[in-house]
Amino acid sequence: MASPSLPLTPSRPVAPTILVVEDSDVVRTLAARMLVEQGYAVITAIDGVEAIEVLERASIGVVVTDLRMPRMDGRELARQVAARWPGVQMIFMTGHPSADLTDGLPGPLLMKPFARDDLAVAVRTRLTAFTE
Q: Contact at 8 Å (CB) between 109 and 66?
């Protein structure tokens, strides 16, 4: 007698992949590790140029990006993401809290160093916007 087949759906919905964009190896690795520990799939990029390459080939739900980076900063990355992938949500991080840098960002700002819980809450909040 054959056993009944079980559904192949996961017990909880699979969250979209998170892209962490940061030029500092230490901060990028730490942020990615924090998110992986929360159960998210994570891809990393060293700057906005590499992030665009990732976005062109992967389905990303949230981009967590530094504001100051070489080649393409976080603000320019956000402009390009909004134009090409309007459903992708943005979270920004910085260690340089100047008003000219942080004014009018299209997403929350985390000040470095940030706590794991602060990052987790920001991502959960943006994922809610992504899925609505």
A: no
